[in-house]
């Protein structure tokens, strides 16, 4: 019987499970990053075996270094009801329902760990260039059980954000439902602000903004909780628009550094046959009972769209994404074309995008956002597919963000985007806490698979924590690191030319959007080599935008 505590340092590409020995960090490769960046590693702790398997004490992890501000999180286990489908590919950490590591929690020093491996996630916010050491001390009930040192390399090159846009669908109604707040009450605004900050911290550049309640992920005939930011008033065909809530929303987006503004879809999802429901003078109007081509809706759009275009030009001033309808399929072609014709003249000169997996719609969609497993079919039609997305359908042979996938499969997205010369990426589920088709709210701490319809983790990447605070996940950190990778490779290209970057990544980008993903060692090598290539470059001039990362909660 082992009567000693065991401590293993791990990198940020390991998902540490309670019953499996973790892969140790490779001490030959220092932790490395750029000034102002956040990098991470983990501390795995296993208590000694006892007769009752009750851990004899509570571990604490202390991290010190002169080069960075460290923040330690406890990695929490979450229930994964649907890890993957039965006919899955090979890149999964497991295919059995159970408890998996995901949420990053504040450390709870008064709680006993599990009898198996326990993980502590360490964020280092880099603030001093040079070669350094990071000291890790683990104590149990005040007595030291391990002292470790890890080399740290901080490159004196301040990162700029990646040029690849990253847009996520933000579900304000789900926050009100989970916290039982009235929509746009003071408590709800606090939650919105925290979750917006968490999105920005993940490298997100734009959020779906509920100017009206989005008709997304909802069954026909049903409606989501009203989350409309606009105040709408109509008298004798004359429309007035109030923007008090919208003004506050825009100010919040600007405060958190977002650069893209996403307008909700003008017609219903999966068919474009009806209209969103709006609240006008306190009463619902339009909705499932109103056909997309109804003249009264066209009359409303003639007032709404020009007003919003003018308002956003003035109040936002950055890129604005408009939508017709999400993911039309071949049987929806006539309905989509009809809906598009209703609003096409009002959107001349605007940027109109929609998610697509069928290239037969290329003549109808101004700028497709292409499913990552269908990019090749668009390329075959001569379309570059510069914007891409993935969701639950993209679960085989491409990168994704499901809980039961390894961290390398989340991080691989950056390689795919860079290799494809992508300009933007969209995901539907930053914080969707409902079942499929919105039939009921879910507690994401208890249900991670949207009532069993999706793979666990598809619908959200952050958790609703106490005090209306967003709590990140391992996947949140992996996606954040992916956008850091993109920014780093772009920096290499700026200094040494695009071909230098593509030579570095050649074996990894040759497969397009397809897996297998690179090994942890390969990803660390790519970052280390790229850092060496940019290490001799001068800092950008004073006032240049720097790292988006703030100190972790």
UniProtKB/TrEMBL annotation:
<protein>
    <recommendedName>
        <fullName>Glycoside hydrolase 123 catalytic domain-containing protein</fullName>
    </recommendedName>
</protein>
<dbReference type="Pfam" id="PF13320">
    <property type="entry name" value="GH123_cat"/>
</dbReference>
<dbReference type="InterPro" id="IPR017853">
    <property type="entry name" value="GH"/>
</dbReference>
<feature type="region of interest" description="Disordered">
    <location>
        <begin position="533"/>
        <end position="553"/>
    </location>
</feature>
<dbReference type="InterPro" id="IPR025150">
    <property type="entry name" value="GH123_cat"/>
</dbReference>
<feature type="domain" description="Glycoside hydrolase 123 catalytic">
    <location>
        <begin position="169"/>
        <end position="487"/>
    </location>
</feature>
